[in-house]
Write a structure and sequence with these properties.
globular; Rhomboid-like fold; mainly alpha; two-stranded antiparallel sheet
Amino acid sequence: MSFSIPPATWALILANTAVYIVQGATGDVLLLNFALWPLGSSAAVGIDGADFHIWQLVTYSFLHGGWLHLFLNMFALFMFGSEIERVFGPQRYLTYYFVSVLAAAITQLLIANATGSYYPTVGASGGIFGLLLAYGVLFPRRTIMLLFPPIPMPAWLFVMVYAGIELYLGVTGTQAGVAHFAHLGGMLGGALMLRYWRRRSPYRR
């Protein structure tokens, strides 16, 4: 794996980091306006201005819930996104990433509506999970090491295990505060995009 960062991945890392710095300096202003709020949140939680707006389908992905949240997402973006961008090229890569972000947001809104949850969603994880899926498809035999427990496995198996864990955690409600179904939505968006491109010579730059 090369440790150089291609331009679109580098731009995403810089943008996310810059927004996090502004987020820390402005308090709840960005959260109120640019996090992904479920429909009817303002009345439900009693916070004036906590309403859904169409731009939140993308802007939520640039906000994060803490420096560790940011670091883990940006590290994954570097690890998986760099490789994917080298295959797709910058334009297709960004299209794929933001389709995953959108799919994750729509999935989260549907789940929030079904469960009556009115908490905002932030983070690049929807896009990251889309990239993780693409990595498993494009480099299925690459070895990936789990952080805990430290078990090496091929990328295709890593993706399947991770998706299974996310589904289990989402269904059981374990690890509250994490948008597990949004992660799965990002993977679904990525899968649909790959399927669409495969019919149209997808990897030409």
